[in-house]
């Protein structure tokens, strides 16, 4: 299916301001700087669809993209969590919106959870897995920036994450991913097809 046809739809600061909660969407979550916006750009083959930055905390709103001019099928770029430099009050406010979105968004079919392959499964990542588990929503983990490791260490990291997620097996899948090299894009788009179109 046609992820390259994705178009920016709207940015929302809160759940209440999100587009109508109908149809199906998939959200990209993960620590600040994990590579969420870059992954959306790799998937859609558009360099600047989602804004990326070297500065963590770039994405501060819930950004919606529609696929194939069809507003009922959406990709969602979530703000990164764990960004240290914003004031604590702002962080708490954000966590609240994120939690509200993850708990209550009916059209959310699955979560793509991005983790730097060199620092997987942080406390925040565990929290995301818990939110997903609470509503029995599937999670597909991208171990990002795989280009930063040689093949051996990268597959060792993959195996390690897989085995520590054994208990979640039914709901969680894991793959290596590199936006830079475009490695893993096909596997990701197959997963999204499954969630959005079946
Ligand atoms: P926030 O919006 O701040 O939460 O960050 P994000 O998760 O959207 O990360 P973003 O896509 O903006 O990428 C952060 C930085 O990592 C940028 O400098 C990217 O160029 C870099 N980056 C992203 N993906 C990859 C990758 O696959 N390989 C390498 N080497 N760098 C990457
Ligand atoms: Mg971003």
Q: What does it look like?
A:
With 198 residues, the protein is α/β, with parallel strands linked by helices. The two termini are 12 Å apart. The mean pLDDT is 91. It is built from five helices and seven strands. It is globular, with a radius of gyration of 15 Å. It has helices spanning 36-44, 88-104, 123-134, 151-164, 185-197, and strands at residues 7-12, 24-30, 62-67, 70-77, 108-116, 139-144, 172-176. 40% of the residues are buried. The chain has one domain: P-loop containing nucleotide triphosphate hydrolases (Rossmann fold, 3-Layer(aba) Sandwich). A seven-stranded mixed β-sheet has the order 1-3-4-2-5-6-7, with helices on both faces. β3 (62-67) and β4 form a beta hairpin. The chain binds guanosine-5'-triphosphate and magnesium ion (MG). Guanosine-5'-triphosphate (GTP) binds next to α1. Magnesium ion binds next to α1.
Bound small-molecule species:
guanosine-5'-triphosphate, magnesium ion
Report the total helices.
5
Shape: globular
The proportion of strand residues reads 15-25%
| Overall pLDDT score | 91
CATH class: Alpha Beta
Number of separate strands: 7
Structural class: alpha/beta
CATH superfamily (homologous) name: P-loop containing nucleotide triphosphate hydrolases
């Amino acid at each position: 299916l046609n992820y390259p046809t994705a178009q920016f739809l709207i940015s929302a600061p809160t759940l209440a301001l999100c587009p109508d909660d109908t149809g199906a969407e998939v959200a990209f979550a993960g620590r600040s700087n994990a590579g969420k916006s870059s992954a959306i750009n790799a998937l859609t083959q558009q360099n600047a669809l989602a804004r990326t930055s070297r500065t963590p905390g770039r994405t501060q709103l819930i950004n919606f993209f529609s696929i194939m001019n069809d507003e009922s099928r959406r990709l969602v770029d979530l703000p990164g969590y764990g960004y240290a430099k914003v004031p604590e009050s702002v962080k708490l406010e954000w966590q609240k919106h994120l939690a509200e979105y993850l708990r209550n968004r009916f059209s959310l079919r699955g979560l793509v959870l991005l983790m730097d392959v060199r620092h997987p499964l942080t406390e925040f990542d565990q929290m995301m897995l818990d939110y997903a588990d609470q509503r029995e929503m599937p999670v597909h983990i991208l171990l990002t920036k795989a280009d930063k490791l040689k093949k051996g260490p990268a597959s060792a990291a993959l195996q390690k994450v897989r085995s520590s997620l054994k208990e979640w097996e039914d709901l969680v899948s894991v793959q290596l991913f590199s936006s830079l090299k475009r490695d893993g894009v096909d596997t990701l788009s197959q997963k999204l097809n499954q969630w959005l179109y079946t």
